[in-house]
Amino acid sequence: MNNACIAVKGISKKYGIHTVLKNIDLTIPHGQIYGLLGPSGAGKTTLIRMLVGIDNPDCGMVRVLGELMPKLSIMEQIGYMGQADALYEELTALQNLEFFGSLYGLRGQKLKKRAEHVLELVLLSDDINKKVSQFSGGMKRRLSLAIALLANPRLLILDEPTVGIDPRLRKTIWKQFGILRDSGISIILTTHVMDEADKCDSLGMIQGGRLIASGTPCELKKKANADTIEDVFLVYGEMEP
Ligand SMILES: Nc1ncnc2c1ncn2[C@@H]1O[C@H](COP(=O)(O)OP(=O)(O)OP(=O)(O)O)[C@@H](O)[C@H]1O
Ligand SMILES: [Mg+2]
Questions:
Q1: Ligand 2: centre distance to CA 40 (Å)
Q2: Whether the Cβ atoms of residue 33 and residue 189 lie closer than 8 Å to each other
Q3: What digits encode the pLDDT tens for the residues 162-219?
Q4: What is the distance in A from the centroid of ligand 2 to the CA of 87?
Q5: CATH class of the domain at 6-237
Q6: Is the CB of 191 under 6 A from ligand 1?
Q7: Taking the CB of residue 223, how many other CB atoms lie within 10 A of it?
Q8: In the chain, which stretches have pLDDT less than 50?
Q9: Of 29, 70, 110, 190, which sees the most CB atoms within 10 A?
Q10: Which ligand is nearest to the CA of 82?
Q11: Residues 6 or more apart in contact with residue 128 via CB below 8 angstroms
């Protein structure tokens, strides 16, 4: 298990009296696109924040890239995109990238080259000098994705990366995810979009704070005797968590 990309063992989390994660075990190998699915409030973001090391479970352990979390040297190797955009509205796209790049120790020509490259990947090259306050929701999402990609991370953890992004751009972004995965980068993401779930190598379904099913999209469809991931979601949704 030490050589898995992610190894989660017996984690639980309570907020007040409300238990939001219940004894989750999860192993994700390297080099996959792994999707977390589940209804709103299921606990996906809570789990993601623990994988990134910005929140702690009450019990259990989280290992990322072989190390117990939270660990700064591992956090530096993760490109993280939260569910809410954390951007400086008064700065331009490029200035945002320069700011976040400097936090990763990037500077000068190297930073400029990486910034231009990631803006190209998310199709924002024409908006490089536009203030973020003038961006649409989808443009902000794409800039957040560019920031997650900036430091060339080994692992990408993306909480609903394509919310508000139109179908044509989503397709392009998913093509990029495939290219990144094929280059050896592991990608963990959450989504409510079922055709995206189908494109993942493996899926985990979370409901009521429990991991209730996991496997490839094909395996999950077979287990639930369903034709589509949407039907799998509905079948599991009707079960007691
Ligand atoms: N800081 C917090 N304090 C109290 N309760 C919280 C906190 N963060 C999350 N919760 C609760 O934990 C539960 C799981 O929330 P979480 O954000 O992980 O769900 P989610 O699966 O990501 O949902 P969505 O699909 O809507 O993003 C919810 O009931 C939520 O209200
Ligand atoms: Mg969430």
A1: 7
A2: yes
A3: 998 999 999 999 999 999 999 999 999 999 999 999 999 999 999 999 999 999 999 9
A4: 18
A5: alpha beta
A6: no
A7: 14
A8: none
A9: 190
A10: 2
A11: 92, 93, 94, 116, 119
